[in-house]
Amino acid sequence: AQKITQTQPGMFVQEKEAVTLDCTYDTSDQSYGLFWYKQPSSGEMIFLIYQGSYDEQNATEGRYSLNFQKARKSANLVISASQLGDSAMYFCAMREGLVNSGYALNFGKGTSLLVTP
Amino acid sequence: DTGVSQDPRHKITKRGQNVTFRCDPISEHNRLYWYRQTLGQGPEFLTYFQNEAQLEKSRLLSDRFSAERPKGSFSTLEIQRTEQGDSAMYLCASSLRGPVGDGEQFFGPGTRLTVL
Q1: Alpha-carbon span A92 to A62, nearest angstrom
Q2: Which residues contact residue B39 at a Cβ distance below 8 angstroms, ignoring those fewer than 6 apart?
Q3: Proportion of chain A in helix, strand, coil states, percent, rounded to 5
Q4: Beta strands B53-57 and B75-79: pairing type?
Q5: For B33-86, how does the pLDDT look when each residue is reduced to its tens digit (9 = 90+)?
Q6: Which chain A residues are closer than 8 Å to B43 by Cβ?
């Protein structure tokens, strides 16, 4: 079963506007972490933001914020004031288990974001 | 440059040949991960090391795949008798396990393998 679901294969947003990329997850663990990565056409995965399952506040990193709704099992990424350089693939990922485990990341299929002038 | 590096960046080979990829993690990172990414998909976990010990292997890692991390520094991923289905981007990531758990994983630029 898919652990991470990203339902938007592609999204468009105009420069300077905000955009929300959806992510829902499936786990029975109480302790887990949620990540967002950006993958430009060059291929490198760039870490954007992290939310722990026990964090009460939504994570923020500059123009990125994570809208964490635990009961709904969703972890949407909000990009404010979009820039042309934000055009890329965006992946949501989850790490399950205890915080001191070495578990790998489970990734969704990604959302392709295109920022237009 | 203090990031994760991978070599080569691109590899084209004929079916049946063996290939080996190298990953150099961030120097102080004790955990190293290998992922495979096919077109239109997110990365899929293959295996990971803590220092020199290989602690977990995915079912995706068939007998033709072997990974090593001698001395807990760089790692190699070898694919023997390559098949066309092995064509993918192979990504390496590293992280630092600290007193409060695993930090975020930093990824390298990947090695794109094409099997003809």
Answers
A1: 18
A2: none
A3: 5, 50, 50
A4: unpaired
A5: 999 999 989 999 999 898 898 888 888 888 999 999 998 899 999 999 999 999
A6: 45, 91, 105, 107
Q: Distance between CA atoms of A59 and A67, rounded to whole angstroms?
A: 8
Task: Provide the shortest C-alpha distance from residue B103 to chain A (in Å).
Answer: 9
Q: Which of A25, A45, A53, A98 to mutate to test the interface with B (most CBs of B within 10 A)?
A: A45
Least confident of A6-10, A15-19, A20-24, B68-72: B68-72
- Please choose, from the candidates A73, A65, A68, A64, the residue with its C-alpha nearest in 3D space to the C-alpha of residue A56: A68
Output phi, psi for B84, to 5 deg.
-60, -30
Mean pLDDT (chain B, rounded): 91
Among A42, A99, A110, select the one facing B101 at the smallest CB separation: A99
Residue A35: CB atoms within 10 A of its CB come to 25
